[in-house]
Amino acid sequence: MSTPTPPPDPLDAALAGLKAAIKTLAPKSQQMVIDWLIRWGNLIVREKKFDPQYVPYFKRGDIVYVDLGFNVGSEHGGVHYAAIYEYSNNKKNKNVVVVPLSSVYDETKISHADLYLGDDIIPWTPGVKTIAKPNQIRSISKMRILKPLSAGDSKAKLKAEHLDKIDAKLKELLFKPEPTTE
Questions:
Q1: DSSP of 18-43, one letter per residue?
Q2: CB 162 within 8 A of CB 129
Q3: Which of 19, 71, 125, 138 is deepest in the core (most CB within 10 A)?
Q4: CATH of segment(s) 55-174
């Protein structure tokens, strides 16, 4: 009598499908996914012991360096600066709402959904033109914050006028315009 073949391991099947999908990508994209999978695996392991109380308290406008991961389509991903967007974030909360920031070389080629903030917004990136990406606003785990994590890390903050512009842009993108009365 022959021994029955055990059913395939669902994890092995999922990983085989993922590997096949990754191999269809261009080499640079393949490497980006591989790098992200390594970082993601580390986050999964770290999550068991993560305590958000050991992360600094962040305020609206604080600029943080975050790992947004590898995303699909035109979702903003990778390691970028972002601005804390929420007004008050409890130290015990494991998540925080951010608006991703990015650099741009030609402010005439900015997407209608993006917002030009100006030059030298981030003090340690002199001469860099910075845009906010309000349509990419998201809640992220505080585990994705790479800096600042200690008192010695450099800190920066968006000005109130920048936050007001982001508020207005989000309102424009998310809500129906109010009818004008004449």
A1: HHHHHHTS-HHHHHHHHHHHHHHHHH
A2: no
A3: 138
A4: 2.30.30.110
